[in-house]
Write a structure and sequence with these properties.
EC 2.5.1.25; S-adenosyl-L-methionine; tRNA processing; Alpha/beta knot; alpha/beta; six-stranded parallel beta sheet; transferase; DTW
Length: 198
């Protein structure tokens, strides 16, 4: 028999994250384009980001070009590294209103989404600063500075809108990770997820 699940955060009822999810306004709108395979993942941080942000939307699939909001007077920027990517400091100088479009999935799947959506891939890109460290203790980062979707959004919004108020988005994220570690047991976590000591 399936465990009762919270309809909002889609976590098991006894691990419901809703009391920790904030309700944060932002001048910057956030559109997350989630690869369809990621939507079924237990550690789905994109859903948490959208639940915690009043000015955010989640779309799921692989083909997005036909439905991209391009002609609504809001400048869209792709939060994804690239050769000519702007820094967040440079983006602050650009006129508002602005929209961050955030691909969500593994790096391979995110690149596939860009390959399948030339209009999306042609948007100006914005990159996070170097040297960031993820709090995502359950996934090995594919490269230095790689963050989960929710962490990347928090860094970007804090930089664009000043202060650290978007850190509140990370409370349910950290509770989610703690619950997963508890479920797997500390022995399994230490064996599979902690770095080996040299």
């Amino acid at each position: 028999m399936p465990r009762p699940q919270c309809a909002r955060c889609q976590r098991p009822q006894r691990h419901c994250l809703c009391p920790l999810i904030p309700s944060l306004p932002s001048k910057t709108s956030v559109l997350i384009l989630q690869h369809s395979s990621e939507s079924r993942h237990a550690l789905n941080t994109a859903r948490l980001a959208v639940l915690g942000l009043l000015n955010a939307e989640l779309r799921i699939g692989e083909q997005f070009d036909k439905d991209l909001p391009m002609d609504d007077g809001v400048e869209s920027y792709l939060l994804f590294p690239g050769e000519d990517a702007l820094s967040l400091e440079e983006l602050v100088e650009r006129p508002e209103p602005r929209r961050l479009i955030v691909p969500d999935g593994t790096w391979r799947k995110a690149r596939k989404v860009l390959h399948l959506n030339p209009r999306l891939a042609s948007l100006p890109r914005v990159a996070l600063p170097e040297g960031l460290v993820s709090r995502y203790r359950l996934r090995k980062a594919p490269m230095p500075g790689a963050l989960s979707t929710i962490e990347a959004i928090v860094v970007a919004l804090n930089s664009l809108e000043g202060g650290i108020r978007f850190e509140a988005l990370l409370k349910p994220f950290e509770a989610l990770i703690d619950a997963q570690i508890e479920a797997m047991g500390s022995d399994v976590f230490q064996r599979n997820h902690l770095p080996l000591k040299g």
